[in-house]
Amino acid sequence: MGKTKEHFKAIRDTIVEGHKAGKGYKTLFKLLGLPVSTIGSIIQKWKANGATVNLPQPRQPFKVFSRAEARLVRTVKHATL
């Protein structure tokens, strides 16, 4: 997955206020210079959560990947036989 850029809270709030005022995505694009898809995703996130703050991850990220886990299990099984 590609790297994403976090936008300032003031910019996200400006997008939401513009949307509330009835401005369209393309109008906000011309005003702020952000991609239309970014503007749309910020508005969708605001509609879903009711806020423009960045939420934490829902869980702790994996420390052992599935391939490494399978290798670890295989090593333990082989060592105990």
Question: Could you describe the 3D structure shown?
Answer:
By secondary structure, the chain is mainly alpha-helical. The chain has a domain at 1-53: Arc Repressor Mutant, subunit A (Orthogonal Bundle), CATH 1.10.10. It is built from 4 helices and no strands. Helix 1 crosses helix 3 (36-49). This is Sleeping Beauty transposase HTH domain-containing protein. It comes from Astyanax mexicanus. Residues 1-52 form the Sleeping Beauty transposase HTH domain.
Provide keyphrases for this structure:
rod-shaped; 81 residues; mainly alpha; Homeodomain-like_sf; 60% helix; Arc Repressor Mutant, subunit A; WH-like_DNA-bd_sf
CATH architecture of the domain at 1-53: Orthogonal Bundle
> What value does the average pLDDT take?
87
Query: What's the number of extended β-strand segments?
Result: 0
Radius of gyration: 21 Å
CATH class of the domain at 1-53: Mainly Alpha
Low-pLDDT windows of residues: none
What can be said about the biggest beta sheet? none
Terminal Cα span? 40 Å
Helix content: 55-70%
Could you say which overall geometry the principal axes of the C-alpha atoms support?
rod-shaped
Oligomer: single chain
Structural class: mainly alpha
What string, H for helix and E for strand, traces the elements in order? HHHH
CATH topology description of the domain at 1-53: Arc Repressor Mutant, subunit A
Q: How many distinct helices?
A: 4
Proportion of residues in β-strands: under 5%
